[in-house]
Amino acid sequence: MPTPDFNLLITLDVLLTEGSVAGAAKRLRLSPSAMSRALARLRETTGDPLLVRAGRGLVPTPRALELRERVSQLVLEAETVLRPAGQPDLNGVVRTFTLRTSEGFVENFGAALIARVAEQAPGIRLRFMHKPDKDSTSLRDGTVDLETGVVGKAASPELRTQGLFRDRFIGVVRAGHALEEGEITPERYAVGSHISVSRRGLDKGPIDEALAPLGLQRKIATIVAGFSTALALARSSDLIASVPERHTANLRWGMHSFALPLSLPEFTVAMLWHPRLEADPVHCWLRGCLREVCAQ
Question: Rounded to two decimals, what is the model's pTM?
Answer without folding.
Answer: 0.70
